[in-house]
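**User:** My hope is that you can spare some time for a protein that puzzles me. I have put the entry right below:
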Amino acid sequence: MGMHTKDGRPVTDEMLDEWAEAYERGEWPEGKTVVMGRPRLADEEVRPVTFKLPVSTIRALDLKALAQGGTRSQALRQAVDDYLAQA
């Protein structure tokens, strides 16, 4: 099963060559911009912060984050934001 265009046509080698030549000339069709990588966390430099927790706490944190559709990192960032908002 090969690739198909948005309207369902099979992508041919000729189409790929044409698209590559257009791209190399700086021509790119209008549409959505593709941004590679993960979204930025902040508009400034970010640095890792590490600390130790009991394994059982980490397990509980991971389970709760997963149940809420998030990750450990997201849960910890939210906890820090909540803590700082109280200051």
